[in-house]
Design brief:
Two copies of one chain form a homodimer. By secondary structure, chain A is of the alpha/beta class. The first copy, chain A, folds into three domains: 52 residues, 434 Repressor (Amino-terminal Domain); 135 residues, Rossmann fold; 135 residues, Response regulator (Rossmann fold, 3-Layer(aba) Sandwich), CATH 3.40.50.2300. Helix content of chain A is 44%, strand content 17%. Chain A has a six-stranded parallel beta sheet with strand order 2-1-3-4-5-11, with helices on both faces. In chain A, strands 7-6-8-9-10-12 form a six-stranded mixed beta sheet, sandwiched between helices. In chain A, strand 9, helix 12 and strand 10 form a beta-alpha-beta unit. In chain A, helix 1 packs across helix 3 and helix 8 packs across helix 9. The longest helix of chain A is centred in the middle third of the chain and has 17 residues. Chain A is elongated, with a radius of gyration of 25 Å. The interface between A and B is medium-sized, with 30 and 30 residues.
């Protein structure tokens, strides 16, 4: 029997409403069948006594064990995904006394096969809920359909997938952030006629969801405000600096006048390092995410702007959403856009010192 | 007799330390005389039992009534100071059961005499603590000296005053925010050779502290990055639109090529309205503060950038600092810079929907 907080007991509510204790219990926990008349009587009493369920106690009393599985790209310490995972872990601490078991699975974000393998392994684990970063569009779409079929609720962090409705999404409005990136990089400088856009070469599907949307927002701004501007797209390998040096050497030999560059992921420090090594001092560089190496570049002037999206809060709130839905039976807001934070050398110190969760 | 939380009572501590209950009470509340030897005995026991004072209960038990006086510019609904006051009121709610009485006094921010009158009236009210926005440098400096003489702790919001050390400051790093304003407005556009800077005409001292620092940061950026750029300074009356129209008409007749403008306070909507009325469509405008009318201008494109500084948090935390110092006897961090938030049409919606306190 679930508890009711404070001095009001289920017995009292049943008496006031003139129904059985079982009926009150079924209304409170939204389970089993209750006649409309009885439900209305109970709800009227609950309203009169200004009832707030002691949901934590009621979840504690439950014997059920929940298995949540999180699927994230493999990552290094202090990179974007590490911050997202820190948020998940902070939420795990809060769920400690609630019979919740959380497992994190990793895939190689530059290899769609690795991602598909992890997705394929999940159903056998009989998860109660799934938290995932749907980097690869088609595979994530298929996996989401499988989860729907199995009636397993899932939440997205970092990216959305068009046409898929997760229980909740926590992340940036990617298109708007791309629009903003163009405004910061180019603004009303109509004399800028060339921009280089770096992207990650990935094995398999044509790039991350998130990146595609950011790029679309960027292109829309340029098309509207500076339609003659050419965008040069250069693919880089994130694990092969020597190869990248050759690629960039060749590109800038062939396009010597380009001064503005953008990259829609958290590896901007690699590009900034190249510019530094090559003594290309007057480049304006914009990238994403507040990872340590990017912050260093921001502070020393190698990167002009970073756009950040609070990955800790994404992870924290996404896992919490699963608990709210499954354990506390609360409504969960389906779309939760993070603030799009603009960081520069001037404001970075005052941002990182501020509590984020 | 003050309480001790959990299962350990003052009596127990006294027994463990081999001193009287009165001695423990005096050490815990840092009042009255205690011999060094007794103090050390008590402190050793407190450390051993990992004692944390139940400060809220102990403050509740205290009979003392506290009078906090806040001194702010007079303001309209939904302007910058209204948000700061909302933060103060949120903190007042939290202090409700603590015998704290909070009074807010207002002065005309465009008239130093009005500010001086309010300052002069405060000592007779025998405040226990003062929260103030030291807009006028010299008068605020003199008032702060008076408070120090009377041994009344005070906190600053919004601006700092050079050479004055309040108990705590909550606000922006003004100089850095000005540097950032120049970067956003001009960046590496070396072809921009004229910028118009609007300022408020004030009666008395030469302008607000905050504004002076912002301007200094702005000028430093320009000097370093675009030394040939001319800054035109135009003074406006904040209560006389007709007069301002005449001033701006004349200025832009004499300086028709200027496309970039900045204003270091929250009245940027007045400038944006003028540009709209005058069909000056291609102006780039940067201002401060997330007041409703500015947000509207940001969304409709009349203002390109707003720099914001979380006034609610300033008010909330500044009043809290007085309570922490006076009631809870806690240490207070002296300098508390707010994040410098950059808002544009692209990210404003995701910022305002996010909880700020």
């Amino acid at each position: 029997m679930a508890e009711v907080n404070g001095k009001i007991r289920i017995k009292d509510i049943a008496e006031l409403a003139g129904v059985s204790k079982g009926t009150v219990d079924r209304v409170l926990h939204n389970r089993g069948e209750v006649s409309r008349a009885s439900r209305e009587k109970v709800e009227k009493v609950l309203e009169e006594i200004n009832y707030h369920p002691n949901i934590h106690a009621s979840a504690l009393a439950s014997k059920k064990r929940y298995n949540f599985h999180c699927i994230l790209p493999d990552h290094e310490t202090a990179d974007y995904w590490a911050y997202l995972e820190m948020g998940i872990e902070k939420q795990v601490e809060e769920l400690l006394d609630l019979n919740v078991n959380v497992v994190i699975h990793y895939y190689n974000q530059y290899d769609v096969d690795s991602c598909r393998q992890v997705y394929a392994s999940i159903p056998d684990l009989k998860p109660d809920g799934v938290l995932m970063s749907p980097l690869f569009k088609d595979s994530s779409n298929a996996f989401a359909a499988k989860l729907k079929e199995l009636n397993i609720p899932f939440v997205f962090v970092d990216s959305q997938v068009e046409g898929v409705e997760p229980l909740a999404y926590f992340g940036m409005h990617s298109y708007q952030s791309g629009h903003l990136a163009a405004k910061l990089l180019v603004g009303d400088q109509y004399d800028i006629k060339d921009i280089v856009m770096f992207h990650a070469k990935r094995k398999g599907e044509t790039g991350a969801n998130q990146t595609i949307q950011r790029k679309a927002g960027f292109m829309a701004y340029i098309k509207e405000n500076n339609p003659d501007c050419r965008i040069h797209s250069v693919g880089l390998y994130w694990n092969d600096r020597d190869k990248n040096d050759i690629i960039m050497d060749q590109f800038f030999r062939e396009n010597p006048g380009i001064k503005n560059s953008v990259i829609f992921n958290s590896r901007v420090y690699m590009v900034a390092d190249y510019f530094k090594k090559s003594a290309m001092k007057d480049m304006t560089v914009l990238g994403y995410d507040l990872v340590d190496r990017n912050v260093k570049c921001l502070k020393n002037g190698a990167v002009s702007y970073l756009i950040a999206q609070r990955p800790e809060i994404q992870g924290y709130r996404a896992l919490k959403a699963l608990a709210q839905h499954l354990i506390y039976k609360q409504e969960v807001k389906p779309v939760n856009y993070m603030p799009i934070d603009i960081l520069t050398a001037e404001n970075i110190d005052f941002y990182v010192n501020f509590p984020s969760i």
